Amino acid sequence: xxxxxxVALAALHAxxxxxxxxxxxxxxxxxxxxxxAIQEPDGFILIxxxxxxxxxxxxxxxxxxxxLGLGRRLVEEGAVVATQAGAARxxxxxxxxxxxxxxxxxxxxxxxxxxxxxxxxxxxGSRTDAVVMSRDLCVDQANVPLP
Length: 147
Ligand SMILES: CC(C)(COP(=O)(O)OP(=O)(O)OC[C@H]1O[C@@H](n2cnc3c(N)ncnc32)[C@H](O)[C@@H]1OP(=O)(O)O)[C@@H](O)C(=O)NCCC(=O)NCCS
Fold this sequence. Notes:
Largest sheet: 6 strands, mixed
Shape: globular
Oligomer: single chain
Strand order of the largest sheet: 1-2-3-4-6-5
Helix content: 25-40%
Order of helices and strands: HHEEEHEHEE
Bound molecules: coenzyme A
């Protein structure tokens, strides 16, 4: 894990998403209370912790580093960091048609708890539902060293 760098986060994000977030947006997010980033050379996870709830704001692995376990490891490290920050439950939203991310979250123990209709707008203007998922965080994780 390295220190969070808004410029590097924006560069990684741009390789993973069609609508990239700017370095300024990352800097603003990182300055907000409860926002935590775990950044690696090929990917990162951004989490917001508010009281006993945490949310995955975004997760990205660059295309050349996919299917090697980094995404799953970032989610597990994020769960540990969120638990250490006081969260008891971890939430996320994922586009209904994002098969890789949904498969990862299913395998990581997240369960669907809701749906936001037409939440995302695609490049062609079409709308996609967001699936809302959550996972309980184990209090024991607060004392476990990062993997
Ligand atoms: C989703 C994403 C982070 C996955 O990262 P990754 O490092 O490739 O994921 P992992 O290698 O840790 O995969 C863990 C498991 O997720 C599932 N999975 C990951 N990618 C998959 C794919 N393309 N198809 C099917 N299952 C997939 C598999 O079960 C995989 O385990 P396995 O490789 O042992 O079969 C990456 O594809 C990405 O950055 N996508 C674009 C951005 C994005 O959609 N972020 C999530 C927004 S909510």
